[in-house]
Amino acid sequence: MKEHIIQTRIEELTPEELSPQERELVNRAKEATRRSMADYSKFHVGAALLLDNGEIIEGSNQENAAYTSGTCAERSACFYAGARYPDVPFRKLAIAAWTSEGKPEGMDWEYYFQRDPISPCGLCRQALLEYETKSGAPIELLLYGRDRIYRVRSVADLLPLCFTEF
Ligand code: THU
User: What are phi and psi of 79, to 5 degrees?
Assistant: First the structure.
């Protein structure tokens, strides 16, 4: 038997350690949560995708009574960007989330957010990976949490042994 061990490098940052550009991207992801449609889960997710042309595309989760037809924030951003700019590589994606359940009246907006970073689901990882593979350049992920921010240098790092071809 041969054993393979897969390691993933995740950088943990404080908000002060973000570059100005990263801070802007995180703020855009936080703002994007306001436009989520999360009537069923009450979990509001925002994504901000920085493209190679400098443009930032925002996405948010969009839910539906037919649950499976809804989509996550990350895919709403990357599918829009792919449809609008099919040849422009994606550079960085920031994600933030909060739940509208149990928030006291008048609570400070900053405290809405999850303490721990939110990480893309498996479907979003697969979708993002295909854009990364197509462009040949890594897409960096910034996963926002109030207590810590994770930076992952490529989507491939989050999806080892992925399905890539048939
Ligand atoms: N969701 C996202 O938008 N992104 C994630 O990374 C995880 C989950 C959405 C899907 C659904 O609308 C809600 O959060 C609860 O799962």
Answer: -70, -35
The predicted pLDDT at position 164 comes to 78
Give the whole-number percent of the chain exceeding pLDDT 70. Answer: 99
Q: Is the predicted pLDDT of residue 166 greater than 70, yes or no?
A: no
Question: Which two three-digit tokens encode residue 141?
Answer: 């992920």
Q: Which of 74, 101, 110, 140 is catalytic?
A: 74
Distance, in Å, from the CA atom of 120 to the CA atom of 159, rounded to the nearest integer, reads 10
DSSP notation for 23-45: HHHHHHHHHHGGG-B-TTT-EEE
Which of 72, 118, 128 to mutate to test ligand 1, by most ligand atoms within 8 A of the CB atom?
Answer: 72
